[in-house]
Design a protein that fits this description.
Two copies of one chain form a homodimer. By secondary structure, chain A is an all-alpha fold. The first copy, chain A, binds a DNA duplex through helix 3.
Chain lengths: 212, 212
DNA sequence: GCTATATTTGAACACATGTTCAAATATAGC
DNA sequence: GCTATATTTGAACATGTGTTCAAATATAGC
C-alpha cells in the first residue's frame, strides 16, 4: 500500500530505525526484531543488506562519520598556523555540534550512539579509533603548533578532557536537566557550544602553556 | 572442596564477577550464566540473593557508591567557605580517583561500569541521579559560594564539562593509549589527577568569574 | 541432637536471540 | 516481453535468555 510511496529505501529505513534504537538502549539492548519492526520490514533484511547485526551497527556509525570527518578536517585545514586555541577547539567540535543541533533527529541519535560507544571498552579500537582518530591526530598536531613548549603528555591529556566534555554533551541523558531543575537543557546545544569552547580553551591554556 | 575455604561469601563473589563483566560489556552484554560461571556458583543464586538481574546490577552500583559518596561528602564538608576552585574540584573527584587507583581491580571495574551508565539514557534517572546527585548538589552549592556572581547556567554547564572529563577518565577504554602510542596511559590515574584539577579549575574560572 | 530457617542444587519453563534458506516477487537490461 | 539479477518473504533453526521451583543440603538457635 503506502510502502511503495515511501521514498526512503529499505537499507536507509533499517539504518534509521537501528540508529534510533541503538541511541536509546545500546548495541546489546536492541534486537534485530525491534529494528525491523520499527522500520516496517522483514526480519531477514538487515542480514541481507548488511551481512550481520554487527555489520549493521558499523554501517550506522560509518554513514555519518564519513560526512562528519570531512567537515571537521576541512574546518581544521581552513585554519592558519597561528590560530588560537579557541579556533582549534571550535573547528574540532563545531561541525559535530552543529549537525546534532540542526541535522534533525537522525544526527542527534547518532551523537548519542557515539557517546555510548566512546565509553565502552568493547568498541574503542574497532570503531572509535578507526573512525575518529585521524581527525584527532590532526587536531593534536595543530595544538602542538599553537603551544610549541607544551609537553606531549599535557597535550594528550587536555585532549582527553575535551573528549570527555564532548562525549557527555552528545550523550543527552537528561541528567543536567534533572539536576538543574530544567534551568539547563541538554538539548540546547547552542547554549553548550557557547560555553564549551571558552571552558576547554582555558583548560588547554593552563595545561599547555608550559608555565610549570 | 576449596569452596568452603573461600573466605568471600556467595553474594560477594557474585557481585565481584558481575562487576568485572559489566565493566567489560555493559548490562545487556552480560548474562547471568556468564556471571555465575565466573563466580563459580549456581545459576539460580543471583536471583535468590538479589531478586533479579536488575536487582543485582543495582546492588553492584550501590555497594561502592555508599562508601564513595560518604568520602566525597566528607571531603566537601572539610573545606572552608573560602576554598579555591582547585580545592572544590579536588574534593569532588579526588576520592573517586584515589579509590580507582589504589582500591584494586574491583574499584577500577566499578568506575568503568559507572562511566558506561553515565552516558546511557537508560540509567540516568534510575541510577546516576539517584546515587550521585546529592554530592553533585553540594558541590555546585559550594561552587556558587566561591563564584557568587556566576550565572546559574554557567555553573551547571561547567559542572557538566567536569562530569564529562571525569567519566571519560573512569571509562578506561584505552583510546588515549592507542592515540598517543602509549605516551599516555589511561590507567595512570595519578598522572591524570595531576592535570585534571588545574585543567577544570581554569575552565570554571573562565566561565564562572562573571566577566561575560 | 534436634528443629527451624537459610542456602544451594539441578532441572525445567516459556520466550527471545541472530542467522539461514528456498521460494516468491520485483526490478532492470536488452 | 523476456530474461537475469536483486530483493523480499515467511518460516524454521539452534542456541541463549531471565526466571521459577521443589528437593536437597547446610546453618544456626536452643
Amino acid at each position: 500500500m503506502n510502502k511503495k510511496t515511501d521514498k526512503t529505501s529499505t537499507p536507509q529505513r533499517i539504518l534509521d530505525s537501528a540508529e534510533a534504537l541503538f541511541a536509546e538502549s545500546g548495541y546489546d539492548g536492541v534486537s534485530l526484531r525491534m529494528i525491523t519492526k520499527l522500520a516496517g520490514v522483514e526480519l531477514a533484511l538487515p542480514n541481507y543488506h548488511f551481512g550481520s547485526k554487527l555489520g549493521l551497527f558499523r554501517a550506522v556509525i560509518q554513514r555519518r562519520s564519513v560526512i562528519l570527518n570531512n567537515e571537521r578536517m576541512e574546518a581544521l585545514n581552513a585554519l592558519s598556523d597561528r590560530a588560537e586555541s579557541e579556533d582549534l577547539i571550535e573547528a574540532f567540535i563545531g561541525p559535530f555540534l552543529r549537525r546534532s543541533l540542526f541535522g534533525g533527529e537522525g544526527w542527534r541519535d547518532y551523537a548519542r550512539v557515539v557517546a555510548q560507544i566512546a565509553n565502552s571498552p568493547r568498541w574503542t579500537s574497532e570503531i572509535m579509533s578507526a573512525e575518529f582518530d585521524p581527525v584527532a591526530i590532526e587536531f593534536i598536531r595543530r595544538v602542538r603548533v599553537r603551544f610549541p613548549v607544551a609537553k606531549t603528555e599535557d597535550v594528550y591529556w587536555s585532549f582527553h578532557f575535551l573528549l570527555g566534555a564532548m562525549t557527555m554533551t552528545f550523550a543527552q541523558t537528561g541528567r543536567i536537566d534533572l539536576l538543574s531543575g530544567d534551568t539547563c537543557r541538554g538539548s540546547d546545544l547552542s547554549e553548550i557550544h557557547l560555553r564549551m569552547v571558552p571552558f576547554l580553551s582555558a583548560g588547554f591554556s593552563r595545561l599547555c602553556k608550559g608555565s610549570t
